[in-house]
């Protein structure tokens, strides 16, 4: 089981969500099962969230103790106002790392981690200080390379306060408002910092959405480029391709369906479709991190957790998938992109990546694509990250962006 989990922890959420997320027709909707509230009161939204604050406004800030992952760096946590997928105000958080060699207004990288989870204990802000051996910051080595270059690094918890695993557009908005937040605190010394974006797989999806949304959602941000890898660009294609057979990573499918239901409670009816087996699985993973979700869901299928044979027939669910698919989003990034993936990646539709990048190129966006010499999704993440950081360094230094368009 340990080997299986290590191989599948970076599986993209989109390709696994279909069987449950589309189970919305049939019986009456049940209320979504939200995560248990974070026990740390710091993450609670203030009562005046709607009346007194705009997107990116800082609600709370605190400095944290030194962190073993990032020796010598200051660690700050910020709670800020952002917007959910349906335009409603919510509070989200980001963690800012400031290395000891940081010079004021040096580069700032917002790095979106892979967060395959439903519980608050799985947030980056929590995992940085946990003693749980099953949770770890897998991208820490690459982030230390960025910190050694004198860059500040922001780590947003891009699933938002509901831990809405699967809601890709939300991730982009949380990312952008997290950048706004750290720039609104002069003591953090990043007010005038140029910004780069980075992330892979589910984190790459939040990164890619942030880049695409920035021209309209946060046009004032000085974003110099976005490095995005292994991005699921089209949830509809991935949903259509997923069958009903048992799958070793079905737990992630279930988790993504529940996460989307949390974000779209009036349009996604997942809980109302579950049979006894489904409700049992829901109870086991509702606050779970990757390892728990994988363990309890391994080898299961949609037909085991719902009795609705028409689970692919609900137009509302398909529309939600479309709204979270970059290939279908008409917006164009206004910054150069570095994009990397395996050309034989079987977990994301490579043609959706190609189509999206071609559309960006046709619009005049400089895009450098790296096809990694690896057959799978996981190894591509490691192979592309060093070049992604080098590419961001060039953007920070003002070197014209290369393009393979």
Automatic annotation (TrEMBL):
**Keyword set, alphabetical order:** Signal
Mind telling me which residue stretches traverse the membrane in this protein? none
User: Is Secreted one of the keywords?
Assistant: no
Signal sequence segment: 1-30
Question: Record's SUPFAM superfamilies?
Answer: alpha/beta-Hydrolases
The family database entries (InterPro entries) matched by this protein are listed as: AB_hydrolase_fold, Lipase_secreted
- Matches recorded under Gene3D superfamilies: 1.10.260.130, alpha/beta hydrolase (3.40.50.1820)
**Which Pfam families does the record cross-reference, listed alphabetically?**
LIP (PF03583)
Q: What is this protein called?
A: Lipase family protein
Traced from the root, the source organism's taxonomic lineage reads:
Bacteria, Bacillati, Actinomycetota, Actinomycetes, Mycobacteriales
